[in-house]
Amino acid sequence: MDDMLRRNRMVMRASHRLTLLTLCLMVMIAQIDTFIVNLGARAIGEHFDASMGELQWIVDSYNLVYAVSLLTGGMLADIHGRRRILLIGGLIFTAASLVCAAAPSAPVLILGRALTGAGGALMIPASLAIIRVVWDQPGERARALGVWAACNGVAMALGPSLGGLLLPWFGWRSIFLVVVPFAVLALILAGYAIPESSDPRPRPANAAAQLFGALALGSLTYAAISAHSSPHATIAALAIAMLSAALFVAIERNKGAEALVSPDILAVPEFRGAMAATLGMTFGGYGMVFVLPLAWQASGRLDAAASAAALLPMSLLFILVAPFSGTLSERLGIRVATSGGVTLMGIGLLLIGTGGLQPNIAITGLGLGLGSGPLSAMAVGHVAAARAGMAAALINVARISGATIGVAVLGACYSAAGGGTQGLLLSMMIGSLVQFSGAAIAWMMTRPKARPAHLTR
Length: 457
Known about the structure:
By secondary structure, this protein is an all-alpha fold. It is about 85% helix and about 0% strand. The protein starts with a helix and ends with a helix.
């Protein structure tokens, strides 16, 4: 009997490892695509004689469609099955990568990039929701999410390096083709290694809420994209985003359990804390990655390639720490891991603003590695498994919203202060302040619950 139980545990562990490998492949494919395309922009522009506007949309159409599709992706995963939506997202992503590689013109390439964004919006929330369902024990789930989060760091480090190798030898089309074999492998593994799961209760599509939610996220992302080129478009997009968000809330208010974003999710304080901390983390992190190379290159201190290399310690430390973040959060407590990780990032940004470089960049990587996995675990682990897809979509909404707003706001702060050391100091101070605020909210939301009086006697 004991031998049979031992064998069953070994089989389950092997199955879980294969599932995690598959999910890690999926998230790496989506993230590498984001980081690698930035390097190919110049070669693509020369090939198509593309305008600056076309080049911008080749890079940004992914982010725009990704943001617009997130809520729908989370809902579809819960209703129609997380594995099914993961597979559909992977198929869309693979087909779109082939469209990009074969694109005869810049508009077709923009269309292909938009489709990859749609595929990513199905893949990433579904993969996070699957972890919530498959790893039902909090400790094991936290460790799995640490590894899953580390894959983002691997993609961040690998994308530019891979692009630098491929572009000179094989041309810009190769940066889209390189992910295809790995995507096909991930799809094959997903069909074999990932169990299906969905919300057993019927739920309406709530088309009006989807429309206004997508419009709010899309307008917010567009505002950030156009912030440096068209202030009038930015103001109009922000107005549309606020109006759409207000209409979304008005529609959702009286829906109860049938709401797209269930009140049950938002009622969980740990989930709200994870949302706030994630928004703060990406606000400062992505804003820093945008502003710091600008400051280096404007001062003549580093060129573009050297700037990318200077940021590498952050990615490497993230990769090294994130797989162990689940174990650390078990030992230190999830409050310390999440709030402490984001606080470390804020300290790193503050020190960078005062003139420190490599050690303080490494501090931000340490904080990112410590906090990312436990924040995802806190978000999806405290929500019912039936709503895992929507919880995963919402935490990704916080992530992309923080990144989008952070790049726009910290870039504007840098410019408003006249660039240079003053611009860097102001932008890093604002970034760290938002991160400290997010960490404080997460700390308060994860306070231990008071024990009932009859249990303390």
